[in-house]
Structure formats: C-alpha cells, structure tokens
Design a protein that fits this description.
Blueprint: H1 6-25, H2 35-38, E1 59-61, E2 70-72, E3 78-80, E4 87-93, E5 102-108, H3 113-121, E6 124-138, E7 141-153, E8 164-175, E9 181-188, H4 189-194, H5 196-204
C-alpha cells in the first residue's frame, strides 16, 4: 500500500473544493418583479360632462357633445322622462293654486321661426286665442319669445285625439341655433303665468360651451 505524500493530499483537497467555491461566489438570481410593479396604473375616472341634467333641476343640457347648447333649469322645474326621442329634455312645473301642472319641453328641429310660431298658434283653437311675440338676444344667441292663450288642443296638431283645454297658455322660446332649439311651456294660464319668471331665468342662462 502506497501512502500519498502530505503535499499531494493537500493538492487533492484544493481541487475538490473548487466547484464549491464557484457555487458560493455566483450571484443569487434577481427576484421576479411583482405583478403590481409591472401593471400600469389605472387611468383616472373621466369626469361627467358639464351641464348634465340633475334630479334637482340644476344644470340642463342638450347632451355631452362639445358645442351643444346649455342652460340652467330652476329648482322648481322638475326633470321628467322624455316621452319621445325628439325631446332633449322635459320638465314638470307644479301647478299654481289648484290648477294643473304645466310642462316644459325642449326640442330641436328644422323650420323657420315664423313657420314654427304658426305651428304653435295652430295648436290653439277658436276666436279667443291671443298672440304676443317679441325678440331678444341672450349673449350671441337670437331668441324669439312667444305667448299664446286660448283653448289648447292637446295632442299632435291635425292628428286629433286630444281633449281641448280651455284657459290654457303657451310661453315659448325659439333659439336660432342650427337647427333651432325650442323651449315650450304649456299648461293652465295660471300655472304658466306663475312660472314665467323662472322660464325667463332659464332663457337668460342659455349659453354655448
């Protein structure tokens, strides 16, 4: 049996230790990035379009698109569902005293100012109807105000089906946008008269964004 010399034994131990040295000197792998770090931040919520109609009256608008006509509805004008897609907005106006409620409709359609006034007057029948017309300017908007009183034919003109309502009134505003906007308040004459100041405030608030 041949015994290894001390020098050879030491060399063998050194060679065997080399792999272990390499393993301990290698850098540890970088930890995986967390999901939260790599996920982009959520976008901020989009703010509601200014002028959207609120349940308490508040600010009314024809829509969220840029360039739409806007207005501020008095608190007394209570937002109501639109009975037709032709409507931009509908408000119920509480009756004065024991009179019925009135309704304010907002719509947009074509036609000249005169043609639409003729249409409104045509919704009243008999010889008791009266018409008052005046023009004014709100900002850079030209507005025609119309007052009609008499027996109102409820329902669509020429279509029938509505019960004539005596002692009713219409206060309307035709705003010369493209196409025109129509603000039409109809109801018992007492209710319409009591709401005239608020109606005029709404018209005074008309604006383009």
């Amino acid at each position: 049996m041949v015994l290894a010399s001390p020098r050879l034994a030491a060399l063998a131990l050194f060679v065997c230790a080399l792999p272990a040295c390499r393993r301990t000197e290698e850098p540890a792998p970088a930890p995986a990035a967390s999901a939260t770090a790599t996920t982009p931040a959520s976008p901020p919520p989009v703010a509601a379009a200014p002028g959207a109609a609120s349940a308490g009256g508040g600010v009314g608008t024809t829509g969220a698109a840029a360039g739409e006509l806007q207005w501020t509805a008095p608190e007394r004008f209570q937002p109501a569902p639109n009975p037709s897609p032709m409507r931009k907005a509908t408000y119920r106006v509480p009756g004065a005293s024991t009179a019925e409620d009135a309704e304010l409709s907002v719509s947009q359609a074509g036609g000249s100012v005169d043609a639409n006034i003729t249409r409104w007057v045509g919704q009243f029948e008999g010889g008791d109807k009266t018409l008052v017309r005046k023009e004014r300017t709100v900002g850079d908007l030209k507005v025609t105000i119309v007052d009609v009183k008499g027996t109102f034919e409820s329902g669509m003109p020429g279509m029938g089906g509505g019960e004539p309502k005596k002692g009713w009134a219409l206060r309307g505003a035709i705003v010369e946008t493209d196409p025109p906007h129509f603000f039409k308040l109809t109801g018992p004459a007492k209710t319409v008269a009591a709401a005239t100041a608020d109606f005029d405030k709404l018209i005074d608030s008309l604006r383009k964004p």
